[in-house]
Write a structure and sequence with these properties.
eight-stranded antiparallel barrel, mainly beta, AOC barrel-like, 1 helix, two-stranded antiparallel sheet, single chain
């Protein structure tokens, strides 16, 4: 027998409403797709501002900022729970360089979440999306960028540091310089 889809009870302007979580997530994806299409329209510059591959090292600081867990599945930590965050983004000297904002949906309790977040820096944004592990290093694909990071591809290696910070090492490639034979596109053996 099918288990009913999780429903969120939300109070908006004094009115309690039920929304299917899938509709909320789908709406966010559609809005992001529209933003991405507008950023990559023919009226914008069609190549990355970076000329060669670069590496950025950042620290996501989950010790401060906004972080909300929304219990949507079974009571307690369970599949389908949502985690929404907007946290400071630091350099390797722990100086503020921007924000780290996004959301994760718990897929395997205590082990994995499917996440999407944006690193906002002075010269643009980098958006990543993929499976993040609760422990060890996760490799998350770079899916979008703006400003100096428009039309980049790459990968972020994110590692929890044990103090509610995460070291995020981004390796970015200008898309207009990539070929299908480049190692970033190769399947693991």
């Amino acid at each position: 027998m099918h288990k009913p889809m999780p429903v969120a009870r939300v109070n908006i302007f004094g009115v309690t409403c039920d929304f299917l979580i899938i509709v909320t997530v789908a709406g966010a994806i559609v809005m992001k797709f529209g933003e991405s299409r507008a950023q990559h329209s023919p009226d914008t510059e069609s190549h990355s501002q970076i000329e060669q591959p670069i590496t950025l090292v950042t620290i996501a600081d989950a010790r401060s900022g906004v972080a909300n867990r929304i219990d949507l599945g079974e009571p307690g930590e369970s599949r389908g729970d949502l985690f929404v965050f907007d946290q400071p983004l630091l350099n390797s000297k722990y100086e503020s360089i921007g924000t780290n904002s996004g959301y994760c949906i718990r897929t395997v309790p205590g082990k994995f979440s499917e996440c999407r977040w944006t690193l906002t820096l002075a010269n643009g944004t980098v958006t990543v999306a993929g499976r993040e592990s609760d422990s060890g290093t996760s490799l998350i694909p770079v899916v979008d960028g703006t400003g100096d990071y428009l039309m980049v591809s790459g990968v972020m290696a994110t590692t929890p540091n044990g103090d509610k910070t995460f070291t995020q090492i981004l390796t970015l490639y200008p898309i207009d310089q990539l070929k299908a034979s480049d190692s970033v596109f190769r399947k693991p053996r």
